[in-house]
Amino acid sequence: MNKLNAAFMLLISSTASTASTAPQSALEFNKWYLEKFQNTDEYTVGSKAIEKFVMADTLKILRKNDADTWAYEKKTGDMPDFAYDADYFTKTQDISEDWPSNITLVSELKDPICYNVYLAFGKDKKHILADCMVKDGNTWKVRSVTKISDDQ
User: Fold this and answer.
1) If you write DSSP's letter for every residue of 91-152 in order, what string do you get?
2) Are 107 and 101 in contact (CB under 8 A)?
3) For a surface tag, which of 3, 33, 40, 122 has the fewest beta carbons within 10 Å of its beta carbon?
4) What percent of the chain has pLDDT over 90?
């Protein structure tokens, strides 16, 4: 094997070993997000760090909706009809304290649009979401989130 082939094989093997799967990426994102949500007052959707986990077009829509909501509320003093009344990534207003340390992979389902990763939250595993994951280069990122079941 010549030096060029050896270098190429090393690059491929190192890239493959650092690339994560859709379920691993969904678990990593949700743990990070829930810990941020609970432990800081930082506006997580507006942070640069979230861009590692969420598709750019999804963030663009969420950020625009938030800006439009704030502008409307500032102008009128009321919440607009288009305001989203739950956290987009958790589909709830309240997060249980045990969620960040209790995220369980329930199942996964690939389709032509995305790799759906079903996750249960909390020790009771009653709050279940499906993260639609898509590949962005070599990284799996969240495209959208759907609530499957809820304990509330």
Assistant:
1) SSS---TTSTT-EEEEEEEE-SS-EEEEEEESTT--EEEEEEEEEETTEEEEEEEEEEE---
2) no
3) 3
4) 55
Q: Strand order of the sheet with strand 139-149?
A: 103-110, 115-121, 127-136, 139-149
What whole-number distance in Å separates Cα of residue 139 and Cα of residue 22?
8
Tell me which residue of 89, 93, 101 sits closest to 125, measured CA to CA.
101
CA–CA dist 55, 140 (Å, integer): 9
Mean pLDDT of 18-24: 81
Closest alpha carbon to 105 in 116, 114, 94: 116
The strand ranges marked E within 8-114 are 103-110
Structure token pair of residue 132: 């639609």
